[in-house]
């Protein structure tokens, strides 16, 4: 299984074709961007750390009955995945108010939501990934009503599994972003990655609002110690998975 031509380069990954048309190879980069790539940088070791963290979490989800695009990791920082037609939607689940929810609603950072909130954003950099409504999703034919219902219930199920797992790791899963794709049988599979780039993760042992941050907000907000926070997430996830036997 050799990597062949580059199919696509995103902000955090490069996708290559392989000699099997149903399989792609994702190479995780150290590059980091924020605010629609207005802020750019690099986080040393991020590619390998995120690839490993995402692999553990995809396997955890698969073991709990959630279908994902994950196949295996043939080398550090490289993941073989099923080729899918990715829906141009970012599905965000929130347990605690942070980020754009606070900016757009005035809710205070850290407000515990009465129930998880599922939001859909349009994956379109030129438009700045705007928040969508159900009717806008229908208008733009981004998903069918059935797919939208399935995305929502799958996102909530994933939230339950990941929140419980991170809690066992001493981490609060504040919010996260998912992407999904359709295989040739039109089955919805979880795609992209789940990592400190795509989640807000707070250390349960830290009360300080800056010190508790273990995710890409350290980079977005120039909080420092970015690499060591990602490393800490990796170690805790690794330990959490091993603890489950
Ligand atoms: P937000 O509060 O900025 O809308 O972000 C919600 C969650 O989505 C947060 O965990 C970070 C993640 N996210 C991404 O993975 N990619 C993005 O481009 C953005 C804006 C957020």
User: What are the segments in which pLDDT stays under 50 over at least 5 consecutive residues?
Assistant: none
**How many domains in all?**
2
Overall 3D form: globular
| Biggest pleated-sheet summary | 5 strands, antiparallel
What does the average pLDDT come to?
A: 97
Question: CATH fold name of the largest domain, please?
Answer: D-amino Acid Aminotransferase, Chain A, domain 1
Bound molecules: thymidine-5'-phosphate
Number of strands: 14
Strand fraction equals 25-35%
Structure annotation, total helices: 6
**Helical residues, percent:** 25-40%
What's the alpha carbon Rg, rounded to whole Å? 17 Å
Can you write the helix and strand succession as a string? Answer: EEEEEHEEEEHEHHEEEEHH
Assign the structural class, choosing from mainly alpha, mainly beta, alpha/beta, alpha+beta, or little secondary structure: alpha+beta
**Cα-to-Cα separation, first versus last residue:** 30 Å
| Name of the level-1 CATH class of the largest domain | Alpha Beta
Task: Tell me what the CATH architecture of the largest domain is.
Answer: 2-Layer Sandwich
CATH H-tier superfamily of the largest domain: ATP-grasp fold, B domain
Provide the spatial order of strands within the biggest beta sheet.
Answer: 1-2-3-7-6
Describe this structure in words.
- The chain has helices at residues 46-63, 99-105, 134-139, 145-168, 217-220, 226-243, and strands at 6-9, 13-17, 23-28, 31-34, 39-42, 70-75, 78-82, 85-86, 89-96, 112-122, 171-178, 180-182, 188-190, 199-203.
- By secondary structure, the chain is of the alpha+beta class.
- The strands form four sheets. It has a five-stranded antiparallel beta sheet with strand order 1-2-3-7-6, covered by helices on one side. Strands 10-9-11-14 form a four-stranded antiparallel beta sheet, with helices on one face. A three-stranded antiparallel beta sheet has the order 8-12-13, with helices on one face.
- The mean pLDDT is 97.
- The protein is globular.
- The chain folds into two domains: 3-82, 2-Layer Sandwich (Phosphorylase Kinase, domain 1), CATH 3.30.200.20; 85-228, ATP-grasp fold, B domain (D-amino Acid Aminotransferase, Chain A, domain 1, 2-Layer Sandwich).
- The two termini are 30 Å apart.
- α1 (46-63) packs parallel to α6 (226-243).
- It binds thymidine-5'-phosphate.
- Thymidine-5'-phosphate binds at residues 92, 98-101, 129, 175-177, 198-200.
């Amino acid at each position: 299984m050799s990597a062949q031509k580059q199919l696509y380069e995103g902000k955090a990954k490069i996708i290559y074709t392989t000699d099997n048309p149903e399989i792609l190879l994702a190479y995780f980069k150290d590059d980091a961007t924020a605010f629609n790539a207005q802020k750019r940088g690099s986080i040393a070791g991020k590619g390998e750390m995120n690839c490993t963290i995402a692999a553990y979490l995809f396997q955890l989800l698969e073991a709990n009955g959630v279908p994902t695009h994950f196949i295996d990791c043939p080398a550090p920082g490289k993941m073989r995945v099923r080729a899918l037609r990715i829906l141009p939607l970012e599905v965000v689940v929130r347990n605690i108010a942070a980020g754009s929810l606070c900016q757009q609603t005035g809710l205070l950072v850290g407000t515990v939501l009465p129930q998880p909130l599922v939001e859909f954003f349009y994956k379109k950099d030129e438009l700045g990934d705007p928040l969508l409504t159900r009717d806008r999703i229908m208008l733009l034919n981004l998903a069918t009503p059935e797919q939208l219902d399935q995305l929502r219930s799958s996102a909530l199920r994933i939230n339950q599994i990941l929140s419980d797992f991170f809690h066992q790791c001493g981490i609060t899963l504040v919010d996260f972003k998912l992407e999904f794709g359709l295989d040739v049988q039109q089955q919805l599979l979880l795609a992209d990655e789940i990592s400190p780039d795509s989640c807000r993760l707070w250390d349960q042992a830290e009360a300080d609002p800056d010190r508790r941050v273990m995710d890409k907000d350290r980079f977005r907000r120039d909080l420092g110690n970015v690499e060591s926070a990602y490393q800490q997430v990796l170690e805790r996830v690794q330990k959490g998975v091993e603890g489950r036997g």
